[in-house]
Design a protein that fits this description.
The protein is an alpha/beta fold. A seven-stranded parallel β-sheet has the order 4-3-2-1-5-6-7, with helices on both faces. Strands 9-8-10-11 form a four-stranded mixed β-sheet, with helices on one face. α5 runs parallel beside α6, α9 packs across α13 and α10 packs parallel to α12. It is built from 15 helices and eleven strands. It binds NADPH dihydro-nicotinamide-adenine-dinucleotide phosphate and magnesium ion. The site of NADPH dihydro-nicotinamide-adenine-dinucleotide phosphate has 28 residues, from α1, α6 and α9.
Length: about 375
């Protein structure tokens, strides 16, 4: 029986993890959960799954939490750390969105838990630090992101020194058919968060629409698999989840229906595989591939540049993007402004070596403040 902490249990990945637990009560017990603002959903989750510890990361919302069920409640900045490091827990699902998830990831590794990682932003910001911490603590970081789960599965086909390239697939998002920058005019928040193949949280949906999600995933892959040769191809059906190319020219791919159930579950059960509730894959689809349109969607180019630059470059890119997406979601800037703003902040910032979690947090504070302060000037609005 695996004893889980689910950090970000009220989100898209958190709720899908709970579905897996619900279907497999003999295999998993939820011992700790965290939420940020969605107290109504949290109460329902607590009453159904009866965890021992409940974390509410946003202190202002903690007073609304009210349950007769006896559990210990931790509010505020210690919530992620307490849940991730609890001795009642052996597996931590890191499903918080954004850099805010970093403390949970770090604590889970320091406490030597099995880490099922969905929170890509923490690895993007602190990749070198986190992977070194995992190595020292002998912890395997198991990918939840579907592309990285695919790569991880494909890597069993050969030796790591024989890998030539990791090739991620990208659906292209809702606007892949657009050919001119003027086509982006007037894109609404509602259009941007409606993804053709996946139902996800708002932030990652916007990242998928701008293609920044693929940029973040290239950086994530670089750290998870210690490989600098990472690239991507557009595959609109999202059936091939990613590929690994070996020295001899063999390309190994992993296929399944577009579902997060499989990658989440595999991160929890590995090395075992158990049935999923997703219907069997039917071979009735045409699989197509296209080159990315990087002149139009240029954020992945910046992500590749940040991998080359190293140091704090990926962190700066991510932090500028987090703020830009927030500004778009609050309707202060337009869709096309996201990439303009991120590029401008990224290109104006100097990079330095990251030595600690506080270095990462300082960059986050500095870059998000700068993005918030300068966006009107940069975008001339
Ligand atoms: P959601 O927005 O659906 O959920 C985010 C979760 O994080 C919620 O539980 C939310 O709590 C909590 N949260 C939000 N802000 C904070 C904060 N400042 N501190 C602590 N907790 C916070 O996101 P997703 O589930 O879609 O994504 C989660 C992560 O997984 C992201 O990094 C994403 O890139 C990655 N991912 C997601 C996929 C998907 O299919 N959704 C696929 C692959 C990766 P509350 O709701 O209570 O406010
Ligand atoms: Mg993904």
């Amino acid at each position: 029986m695996k004893k889980l902490a689910i950090l970000g249990c009220t989100g898209s990945i958190g709720l899908q993890t709970l579905d897996i637990v619900r279907r497999n009560p003999d295999k998993f017990k939820v011992e700790a959960v965290t939420a940020h603002t969605d107290i109504i959903s949290l109460q329902k989750i607590v009453e159904e799954f009866r965890p021992s510890i409940v974390g509410i990361t946003n202190e202002n919302y903690a007073k609304n939490f009210n349950t007769c069920y006896p559990c210990s409640v931790v509010a505020g900045k210690d919530a992620l750390v307490e849940c991730a490091s609890s001795s009642l827990v052996d597996t931590v699902v890191c499903a918080v969105v954004g850099m805010a998830g970093l403390d949970g990831v770090v604590s889970a590794i320091q406490a030597k838990k099995r880490v099922a990682l969905a929170n890509k932003e923490s690895l993007v910001c602190a990749g070198e630090y986190i992977t070194e911490l995992a190595r020292i603590n002998n912890v395997n970081i198991l990918p939840v992101d579907s592309e990285h789960s695919a790569v991880w599965q494909c890597l069993t086909a050969g030796k790591s020194e024989d890998v030539e390239q990791i090739i991620l697939t990208a659906s292209g998002g809702p606007f892949f058919s657009y050919n001119n920058i003027s086509d982006f005019d007037g894109i609404t928040v509602e259009q941007a968060i409606t993804h053709p193949n996946w139902k996800m949280g708002k932030k990652i949906s916007v990242d998928s629409a701008t293609m920044m999600n693929k940029g973040l995933e290239l950086i994530e892959a670089r750290w998870l698999f210690d490989c600098n040769n990472v690239d991507y191809i557009i595959h609109p059906q999202s059936i091939i989840h990613s590929m690994v190319k070996y020295k001899d020219g063999a390309i190994i791919a992993q296929l399944s229906n577009p579902t997060m159930e499989l990658p989440i579950q595999l991160a929890l059960t590995y090395p075992d595989r158990i049935p999923t509730a997703t219907p069997d894959f039917v071979f009735d689809k045409n699989l197509t591939f296209f080159q990315p349109k990087e002149d139009l969607f240029y954020l992945p180019k910046l992500a590749k540049d940040s991998i080359k630059q190293g140091k704090s470059a990926p962190c700066v890119l991510n932090c500028a993007n987090e703020k830009a997406v927030e500004l778009f979601l609050s309707r202060k800037i337009g869709f096309v402004d996201i990439q303009k703003l991120v590029k401008s902040i990224y290109e104006k910032t100097e990079y330095f070596k990251i030595n600690s979690v506080s270095d990462v947090k300082n960059i986050f504070d500095e870059i998000t403040a700068k993005t918030a302060m300068d966006y009107k000037n940069i975008l001339r609005i």
